[in-house]
From TrEMBL:
Belongs to the ANP1/MMN9/VAN1 family. It holds the Pfam family Anp1. Transmembrane segments: none annotated. SUPFAM superfamilies: Nucleotide-diphospho-sugar transferases. It comes from Jimgerdemannia flammicorona. This is Anp1-domain-containing protein. InterPro entries: Mannan_Polymerase_Subunit (IPR052086), Nucleotide-diphossugar_trans (IPR029044). It comes from the Eukaryota. One of its GO terms (biological process) is cell wall mannoprotein biosynthetic process. One of its GO terms (molecular function) is alpha-1,6-mannosyltransferase activity. GO terms for cellular component: mannan polymerase complex.
């Protein structure tokens, strides 16, 4: 009988092992195990309901901000967000940077890393920071930024930006979404508790601008329809778009700016609205999940955030404003919001 040499046995074992490794490499399940939590996940969405007691119920909040040419805003933005008293381990931050040549992405990455490294306790550290980049090849010059038609194109691009950001960052655990512009410079540290505590589907504070010796209303996209505005819309074509802030395109709506201290001085006095802006807007996450997003096409004559409000109301949700709860925006090119970009 012929006995195989030790070398032959070793070669056979080696070839067998190589064959097994090759088959494992070919398998679509390579690298996965039944213990891998990233493969098998279960989420009970029946329990992800934003409530007025969000703080006490440990509800997660997603703060979203689109940036464009905004490197000079990033440090102050993060300093202000870091002052929020809502538990930071329940807050996720999401950013989308588009069409920027001022190194916004790098500034954002550097500052975000620094904040995450220096916040040592679980309470102080944000749950996550997500930075997206998506360019839309949209440029707005100083000469045409006041043009009505250019503003419509700009709002379409902003709708795309917000939709990309929302769909890329909204997670099953999020109960609330706060849309916060990068150039909102002053707001209470209790902003999240205050807005969530109102228990509304969509709610906006009143946004004003100020300088060292002057102040005025800023966000004209927070408004309520009137009998005159509804009658005027009957004469519009289905694809006609309405934009606030143009004297030659009067909409006859009632602005939240004009309701400040009107018959009521309470900080938490709420009024029903039909349109909202995006400078500081809290949305119950369920509203987004059920289909209210930022239309890139005319929806009841509105685009972007105002279109979001119209969609939400069509779905049966409420839209509210706080005329006496003021947050301040940095004074930029103008004293109205029709000529500002993302957060420039």
């Amino acid at each position: 009988m012929r006995i195989a040499s030790p070398y032959c046995k070793a070669a056979t074992v080696l070839l067998t092992l190589l064959a097994i490794l090759f088959l494992v490499w070919l398998s679509p399940y390579r690298g996965r195990t039944c213990r891998d939590a990233n493969v098998f996940q279960y989420h009970n969405m029946n329990k992800v309901d934003g409530t007025a007691a969000g703080h006490f119920n440990h509800e997660h909040v997603l703060i979203l901000t689109p940036f464009k040419e905004a490197a000079h805003h990033i440090e102050s933005y993060l300093i202000n967000v870091n002052k929020l008293t809502y538990p930071h381990h329940l807050i996720s931050l999401g950013f989308l940077v588009s069409d920027s040549r001022d190194n916004t992405v790098q500034f954002l990455q550097d500052h975000a890393r620094w904040f995450m490294k220096t916040q040592q306790t679980d309470w102080e550290r944000f749950r996550s920071v997500s930075i997206m980049q998506k360019d839309f090849a949209f440029e707005l010059s100083n000469e045409d930024r006041h043009s009505f038609q250019v503003q419509i194109k700009r709002r379409v691009t902003m709708s795309k930006s917000r939709n990309y950001l929302l769909t890329s960052t909204l997670r099953p655990e999020h109960a609330w979404v706060l849309w916060l512009d990068g150039d909102v410079i002053e707001y209470p540290e209790t902003l999240l508790e205050d807005l969530i505590g109102m228990g509304k589907d969509i709610i906006v504070p009143n946004c004003w601008w100020h300088s060292y010796d002057d102040e005025g209303g800023y966000d004209r996209n927070n408004w309520r329809e009137t009998p005159e505005s509804l009658e005027m819309q009957k004469r519009l074509g289905v694809n006609d778009v309405l934009v606030e802030g143009y004297n030659d395109h009067q909409t006859h709506r009632r602005l939240l700016l004009d309701m400040r201290y009107e018959n009521e001085t309470s900080l938490y006095h709420a009024v029903e609205l039909d349109g909202v802006g995006g400078t500081c807007t809290l949305v119950r996450a369920q509203v987004h999940r059920e289909g209210a997003v930022f239309p890139t096409f005319p929806f009841k004559h509105q685009l972007e955030t105002e279109g979001l409000a119209k969609m939400a109301k069509s779905l049966g949700y409420g839209v509210w404003g706080l005329p006496n709860y003021i947050r301040w925006r940095k004074l930029g090119r103008g004293k109205g919001n029709q000529d500002s970009e993302w957060a420039e």
